[in-house]
Design a protein that fits this description.
single chain, 149 residues, alpha/beta, 3 helices, 28% helix
Amino acid sequence: MLAVTVASGAREFDQRTLRSTRPEHQVGPALQEALLDKARTIFSGLIIVDPDAQKTDAYQRNANLMLSDDAESNALPGSRSSERRALHPRRHQLPDRPEQEFYLKSRGIPPKAADELLIFGFFEEVLNRLESEELHAALRTLIRSRVRM
């Protein structure tokens, strides 16, 4: 499962997932969210691991790019297994954006280009997993319009 969210204004997005694994390797979902203004997102995901599942890669990744000090993001990943083994639901924290901006600008990259690199680099993890170049291009255009670059 792949998801891209660009939340702005005072919008609130509540995303919930439920996955059940089969007896084979699984790849966890990747959710990328950029939050502007006073937007708020909530992610709640649950993975249920089949008792016969071997070598299951049961994880959930929810990464957030905070583009406003007033934005808020909450993640509640979870997993359930009949076996006593470690499963790793997780929320991915990005490095400090001002630190990344400083790094790029100190190497002579203009501020607008630095912002574009950070924002689109963030979303490329999901967009590059798409098989359709048309869909990839359409989503990049949509993201650009929503982020107001």
